[in-house]
């Protein structure tokens, strides 16, 4: 089709039979901030490709017969990976949404996703900001954990590694919600699976591995094999969304059941209720993913609400992690041997036996799960 010929056949009724046909009209393209523009104004724009097709042949006859004009994208859009073709798809999507609303029809999903109102270069601004805040909360609590827990604690390496794995996942979640591409989508999904697997590994180390290190090492090797097979299948064979969701849900439920069983077995410990709260909160909040509705104000959907609601959970989790060590058998023994006296905060003054070296918190945290006893001064 050339620029001045008759309008193209309207494919709306072919793509969506339930939608009444929209008369072919001539209208100006709304590309004020786009880098594609027609050679002349008033180019026919009646051939809107509605879900699942959105401008499959962008530089061709769908828009104009002319060549694309030079790029007028802001620099931040280019840096975020937005191309001219992406801008045209975005604008076409909103023209299509307007047609659906004008006809009183329900707005569909485009390529399996609801339409979101872009802010600057952020494709899904609410989810992107929420992912960033989750990562920031993880970083802050990691710094607090490293300053309050000695590196000699048996759980220290596992907890710190889990925090870094979580930070990496929230970084890629932020990138994915900023710009949805095949690469960022895969990295978001794979890093989320890594967090789930590392979470169940942390559970194994805390409940079994401290007493049986060989068992924890074997379980870690098994999880690495599972992660490798999972990523290889999705990357090289078939990216199956249903399988990925089912696998993550199965591991998540196993992780929750394991933690709750441990809490039930150790229900007399004063810190167990915080562990139960973390597990139940994470499982309950994940149900938000089952909700599926058009974004409120075209910004806030169920996924974004889920990300926002998990921000306080990081604080609760990292406040609970050091507590089991403070109630270990050796820590209770130290409390029975030593009584507080006039001394700097956190120090022990033993009344009947020589004072152990270090603060009570350090001794308890360093001794949890360890068969060794701290050396006593005076020997």
UniProtKB/TrEMBL annotation:
UniProt superkingdom: Eukaryota
Name of the protein described by the UniProt record: Post-GPI attachment to proteins factor 3
A Pfam family it matches: Per1
Functional description taken from the UniProt entry: Involved in the lipid remodeling steps of GPI-anchor maturation. Involved in the fatty acid remodeling steps of GPI-anchor maturation where the unsaturated acyl chain at sn-2 of inositol phosphate is replaced by a saturated stearoyl chain. May catalyze the first step of the fatty acid remodeling, by removing the unsaturated acyl chain at sn-2 of inositol phosphate, generating a lyso-GPI intermediate. The fatty acid remodeling steps is critical for the integration of GPI-APs into lipid rafts.
Record region (Disordered): 1-21
Subcellular localization: Endomembrane system; Golgi apparatus membrane
InterPro entries given in the database record: Per1-like
Bias (Polar residues) ranges: 7-16
Keywords: Golgi apparatus, GPI-anchor biosynthesis, Membrane, Signal, Transmembrane, Transmembrane helix
PANTHER family xref list: PER1-RELATED (PTHR13148), POST-GPI ATTACHMENT TO PROTEINS FACTOR 3 (PTHR13148:SF0)
GO biological process per UniProt: GPI anchor biosynthetic process
Chain ranges passing through the membrane: 155-175, 187-209, 221-239, 245-265, 277-298, 304-322
Principal location listed in the UniProt entry: membrane
Family note: Belongs to the PGAP3 family.
Entry's Gene Ontology molecular function annotations: hydrolase activity, acting on ester bonds
Annotated membrane topology: Multi-pass membrane protein
GO cellular component: endoplasmic reticulum membrane; Golgi membrane
């Amino acid at each position: 089709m050339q620029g001045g010929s008759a309008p193209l056949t309207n494919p709306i009724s072919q793509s969506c039979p339930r939608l009444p046909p929209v008369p072919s009209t001539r209208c100006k393209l709304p590309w004020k901030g786009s880098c594609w523009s027609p050679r002349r104004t008033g180019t026919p724009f009646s051939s809107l490709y509605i879900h699942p097709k959105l401008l499959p042949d962008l530089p061709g006859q769908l828009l104009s017969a002319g060549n694309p004009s030079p790029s007028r994208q802001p620099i931040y859009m280019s840096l975020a990976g937005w191309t001219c073709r992406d801008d045209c798809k975005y604008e076409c999507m909103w023209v299509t949404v307007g047609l659906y609303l004008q006809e009183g029809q329900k707005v569909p999903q485009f390529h399996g996703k609801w339409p979101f109102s872009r802010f600057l270069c952020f494709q899904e601004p609410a989810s992107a900001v929420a992912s960033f805040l989750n990562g920031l909360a993880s970083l802050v609590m990691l710094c607090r954990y490293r300053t309050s827990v000695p590196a000699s604690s048996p759980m220290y390496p596992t907890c710190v590694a889990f925090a870094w794995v979580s930070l990496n996942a929230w970084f890629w979640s932020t990138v994915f919600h900023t710009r949805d591409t095949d690469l960022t989508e895969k990295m978001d999904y794979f890093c989320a699976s890594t967090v789930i697997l590392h979470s169940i590994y942390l559970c194994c180390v805390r409940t079994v591995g401290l007493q049986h290190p060989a068992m924890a090492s074997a379980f870690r090797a098994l999880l690495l094999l599972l992660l490798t097979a999972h990523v290889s299948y999705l990357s090289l064979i078939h990216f199956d969304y249903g399988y990925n969701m089912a696998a993550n849900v199965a591991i998540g439920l196993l992780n929750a059941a394991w933690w709750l069983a441990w809490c039930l077995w150790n229900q007399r410990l004063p810190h167990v209720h915080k562990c139960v709260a973390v597990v139940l909160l994470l499982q309950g909040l994940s149900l938000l993913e089952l909700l599926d509705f058009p974004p409120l104000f075209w910004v806030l959907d169920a996924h974004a609400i889920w990300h926002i609601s998990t921000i306080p959970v990081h604080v609760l989790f990292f406040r609970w992690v050091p507590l089991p060590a403070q109630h270990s058998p050796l820590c209770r023994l130290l409390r029975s041997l030593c009584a507080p006296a006039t001394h700097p905060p956190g120090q022990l003054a033993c009344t009947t036996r020589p004072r152990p070296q270090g603060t009570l918190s350090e001794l308890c945290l360093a001794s949890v799960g360890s068969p060794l006893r701290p050396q006593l001064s005076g020997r």
